[in-house]
Amino acid sequence: MTSATHIAVAVEALVVSFGNFKALDELFFTAAYGEVRGVIGPNGAGKTTLLDVLTGRSSASSGRVTLDGELDLTRMNEVQLALSGIGRKFQKPSVFEALTVWENLDLACRRHRRSLLREVFSTAEAKDSEAVATVLERIGLQRHRNARAATLSHGQKQWLEIGMVLAQEPKVLLLDEPVAGMSDDETIETAALVRSLRGPHRAIVVVEHDMEFVEQIADSVTVMHEGKTLFEGSMQNARADHRVLDVYLGR
Amino acid sequence: MARMLKTGALALVALVSLLLGSSQAFAGMDRSAIVGLLCGTGSHAVMQGADEMLANLPTASPADLDWARAVVQAFSRRTLRCGGGGVGYIATSGGLIDAARLEASPPVSSVLRSPFPNLRTRAALDRLTAAIAVLNAPAPEARLAAVGILASHSDLIPPALAEAALKRTRNPRVAEALRGLIVLQRLHAPDIGQRVAAIRAMSENATSRTENELKSLRADPVYAANPRVAAALDHGIAHVRLWVQVGAVLSLLYNGVSAGSVLFMSAIGLSIIFGLMGVINLAQGELLMVGAYATYSVQQIIRMIAPGYISLYPVVAIPVVFILTGLLGILIEWTVIRHLYRRPLMTLLATWGISLLLINLVRVFFGTQNLEFDTPPYLTGGVAVVGDFFITWNHLAAIVFAVGAFTATLALLRFTSIGLFIRGVTQNRDMAGCIGISTRRVDMLAFGFGAGLAGLGGLALSPIYNVNPTMGTGFIIDSFMVVVLGGVGSLIGTAVAALGIGLVDVGIEPFYGAVAAKVIALLLIILIIQWRPEGLVAARGRR
Amino acid sequence: MGSGERGPAATAVLIAILLVLVPLMGLHLLGSVGLSVYLVNVVGQVMCFALLAMSVDLMWGGAGVLSLGHGLFFAIGGYLSAMHLLRTAFAKTHVLPDFLQFMGQTRFPAYWHLFDSLPLTLLAILLIPGVVAFVFGFVSFRSRVNGVYFSIITQALTYTAMLLMFRNDTGFGGNNGMTGFHAVAGLPVGGAGAAVLLTTLSTLAVLVALVGGRLLITTRFGRMLVAIRDDEPRLRFLGYDTLWLKLSAWCLSAMVAAVAGALYVPQVGIINPSLLDPSLSLEIAVWVAVGGRGGFYGAIIGAVLVNVVKFWLSAAAPSLWPFVLSLLVLLVVLVLPNGLTDLSNRSRSWMADLGRGLRDSGRRRPERGAG
Predict the structure, then answer these.
(1) Which residues of C touch B357 (CB under 8 A)?
(2) Contacts for C131-139 with beta carbons within 8 Å, 24 or more apart?
(3) Which of C4, C92, C7 is nearest to C300 (CA)?
(4) Please, are residues B368 and B382 in contact by the beta-carbon 8 Å criterion?
(5) Contact criterion met (CB < 8 Å) for C229 and A98
(6) Helix (H/G/I), strand (E/B), else coil: A44
């Protein structure tokens, strides 16, 4: 495993409960810079809940979540989490449908230290438009830059959302089922896109049902079951692990 | 009737005088002297006459009582005629009769005066009438009423009167009232023992009226002079005040619960519909109003076809109102709401349009004035419990009604398949649709059910509130407050919040007014939303 | 949204109409054009309603937040303006307003003296609604109250304010409100001069708001509002604290509504708590819905149309108005969800169909009718 200095986000003994139900039960999880970490597990394993806690949508009942080994994330709301470098693409594509592709990406390019007031009344600056153009190229939507997001196809919306999260320049990029509802071709393109996003200053976490897709993109996987970590390691080993097999195939 | 009575009385008097030879044989009343005083000039003489008569009443013979009644009645009705030298006559259709003897009088040549009861003498005459009635009125109700009149002037009544009256009645209610009067009079008795006993007896009946009565005794010099009286009085007042306060708290609770019940009836439908479809029905208050008007229509129809059963109309109206408003709700859902599921803000406007339409339609057909309801006897009055706490039947009916609606709704949601569907769709509309629940039908039925409950709310309100076309407008905001506070789609939350807001409203109102109650309720709700955005009882599970 | 492409054209047309109105007023003052004072007054009132509708549209069309309580801000502006007018009237007549006499006062409460000054009054007209909106908006938006919830709570707020103002001891005239204004800027109230002045001011205010509003929605701020409307959580996950965005739009909207109220009250010569009736606030939303949300021009057109019909019907058949209004609401909501914008879209496609049909019928003999 990667050495501790390179761990981006670390989750320790995380518990999240809704009423009597524990969605996460003493979960341990890490994602390191430079890697693509796949998170798999059957329905109700707590994958989305994990992302919810990381982005401030659900709050932890107990446990610790740290970024770069120091910043405690459990006390932050989603805005603070986003500003400290956690970006998330949702399972259901959520883009601003009434805005154009360019405007969507431009909004996502929030300069961290700028006051909201200045942000609000500024017009786009050259530096920003350069960043937007880069992202636009990456997600391959240059031809649609002036199209309303509402007019995009499902797959294109997914890419646009990935682009928006990318434009935030996050340290931790969370992708929740990025290929759900995509055609085979789109899935292949998305896999390539995700692989290309790997970088030394970025940890990528992909939550996915599709084992093959995870195998294509992930450097290592975490298998979750009933709110706990069942397995952590390479995909090959995961396939060989009897507990994983039990969970997936049933007994 | 009066004439017959009078002739009857005259015959009786004549008979009695015949039997006893002379009415003067009774030492009791000096009739001529009293008539002389009553016919005297100036109210002073009249008062003296009245006092004389009153003082003699406890020991008066039946004949004297009849005579007294005839004279007092004549004075009150201005048929008393006074000649010179204090001779009185009573004018009847058959000519003048002598007021002292009640016998036909020889023709009178002098000019007769008809004395006019003024403010002071009128009160004295009323007291006399009551004092006579308490002794000889045939109907127990008349005696009870007379005791009531005497009780408010207990200091002006001779102490023996109540005792005498007590001996002449067998009716337990009259007897109890008379004992109360005796206690009241003994509060001023010269005998200290009697006084203390009276104070004790008095404080048994703890109402704020008793409290005032007892407090006024502190002004009596005996209170300062006699430590026994003072101790008994202080103890009695403390005792009465305690129970009055207990009663005040209880009646606050009672009123709060009854206000909460009404709120619950109007909010429950709103809550179910909001939970199910995310739609706020701004016409909910108008459904309540329609329910009240449907109740009225049922009453009118029964009055027309079966006037004998008019008092049963609230019972008959229950199913009628529920079905009528329920159908109206289904109609609204079918024509308007179902087209707006993805646009909840637009449903606000649409349902407001519907409420406007309903108000104005009712205005056209029924007019704008308040409706007159025949409150059936079993919904009028109530029973005194403790202190000034009085359980009124109409409020109790509203509470029972709300409890019934709560239980029925709970049972519907828990134990029936439609209830299961409603819960399913509330939690996850798409999933429920996937497993084959017809979400449209569930919506329609739930909307109809909610509307029917609101209609029943209107029925429950009709004996308590003013029923007019705009009565519903105030309800929607209060009901929404209940839904916000209770948590969307939570039946128990709705009930708790309705009770809470009802209690806050009723609790604040007497001290700071109804407006302040509203303001404070709104502020409280905004504060509570800060702390629990999903309401007191949040629906469980993930969003 | 619909304002994107055709917005500028519609705006230009509207601006042109408004620009014609202003000199018309001026001409009227010179006695050249025979508009009656009543009509001038009606135009002025309708302009105030248009401004009010724009303030609601900023939130509803812009950020997707429907306020059903803008009557509150309108009324606050109105009351503040009325207080200034009463103070200036007092300076002339030295007669205390009826409601103060009724309350047993012998003079104005001390803080009323602030309203002697026009600039201070104007400041108050912006500041007080702004502060009220800020406090209310802060607690609501902070706890993520939105959608239908927010709408109803704004309505509850207005309703509560109405109950409060109905009371005499609140100190603002209770049920009867404030009336007995003397003059506006030296021109007697009810006269032609005041009517023209106020109508011109109201028209200019609409004009300024329209230009300013159109500019505003082309900035990043405007786009962020649209983003809030489309997907507020997404915007938050991008690192924007939407609380402050919504709050600033909300306060701005409240201030615009207050200005509309401040201009409205001297034109009708009275203010009372009926402006706080929840149904007025709902009606404002209806104007916007009728004209079409977003982009402001729909709000103006809707407010003008509905109110012209209302003025006409209130004179011709007053009992008919609630029926017309409720049916209009249902029609717009069910048939034209984007208001007249839909109608213009549809008529355009009908025209296109018709044109195609005519062309087709020219080319080949139709067996059936072309339509």
Answers:
(1) 322-323, 326-327, 330
(2) C132/C72, C132/C73, C132/C76, C132/C254, C133/C73, C133/C250, C133/C251, C133/C253, C133/C254, C133/C255, C134/C247, C134/C250, C134/C251, C137/C246, C137/C247, C137/C250, C137/C251, C138/C243, C138/C247, C139/B526, C139/B529, C139/B530
(3) C7
(4) no
(5) yes
(6) coil
Count the Cβ atoms, other than its own, within 10 Å of residue C272: 21
> CB-based contacts of C183: which residues, under 8 Å, 6+ apart?
C88, C89, C92, C189, C194
d(CA C353, CA B172): 93
| CA-angle at B151, arms to B149 and B153, nearest 5° | 80
d(CA B470, CA B368): 8
Chain A: closest CA distance from residue B271 (Å):
22
Using CA coordinates, name the residue in chain A closest to C236.
A79
Mean per-residue pLDDT, A52-79: 84
Q: How far is A209 from chain B (nearest CA, A)?
A: 19
CA–CA separation, B336 and B175 (whole Å)? 66
CB atoms B280 and C153 under 8 Å: no
Instruction: Tokens for B468, please give them.
Output: 């007019």
Residue in B464, B458, B441, B528 with CA at minimum distance from that of residue B493: B528
Closest CA to C50 of C313, C334, C305, C350: C305
pLDDT digits (tens, 9 = 90+) for A110-152: 655 556 666 666 665 556 677 888 888 888 888 888 888 888 8
Q: What is the C-alpha end-to-end distance of chain B, expressed in Å?
A: 80
For residues C72 and C132, the answer to whether their CB atoms sit within 8 Å is yes
Asked if A18's CB is within 8 angstroms of B542's CB, the reply is yes
Query: What values do phi and psi take at A144, rounded to 5?
Result: -105, 20
Q: Choosing among C228, C234, C244, C247, which should be mutated to test the A contact, i.e. which has the most A CBs within 10 A?
A: C234
Cβ contact (<8 Å) for A19 and B542?
no
Check: CB of residue A202 under 8 Å from CB of residue A233: no
Residue with the two structure tokens 């997707």: C64
Whole-Å CA distances, B504 to B259, B513, C44: 10, 12, 44
List the alpha helices (DSSP H) in A109-210.
116-121, 126-138, 154-167, 184-196
Tokens at B300, concatenated: 């009118």
Q: Which residues contact A192 (CB under 8 A, 6 or more apart)?
A: none
Q: How confident is the model at residue B323 (pLDDT cuts 50, 70, 90)?
A: very high
Please give the span between the terminal C-alpha atoms of chain C, in angstroms, as a whole number: 30
Q: Which residue of B has its CA nearest to C330?
A: B350
Q: Which residues are CB-neighbours of B527 under 8 A, at least 6 positions away? A: none
- Give B425's Cβ-side CA count (13 Å radius): 26
Which runs of consecutive H residues, i.e. helices, occur in B90-158?
Answer: 119-136, 140-151
- Cβ distance A107 to C224 less than 8 Å, yes or no, reads yes
- CA distance linking residue C5 with residue B543, whole number of Å: 37
Q: How far apart are CA C251 and CA C133, in angstroms?
A: 5
* Residue, of A251 and B443, whose pLDDT is higher: B443
C297 touches C210 (CB < 8 A) = yes
Residue B184 in tokens: 């009241």
Nearest to B490 by CA among B428, B431, B409: B409
Q: Report the top-level CATH class of A4-249.
A: alpha beta
**ipTM of the shown complex:** 0.87
Give the residue carrying structure tokens 């290592």: A220
Q: What is the mean pLDDT of residues A73-84?
A: 84
Cα–Cα dist B121/B117, whole Å = 5
Parallel/antiparallel/unpaired status of strands A62-67 and B95-98: unpaired
Tokens in use for B291?
């329910």
Q: Is the dihedral of CA C314, C317, C323, C326 positive or negative?
A: negative
For residue range B42-67, list pLDDT tens digits in order: 778 888 888 888 888 888 888 888 88
Is residue B127 within 8 Å of B153, Cβ to Cβ? yes
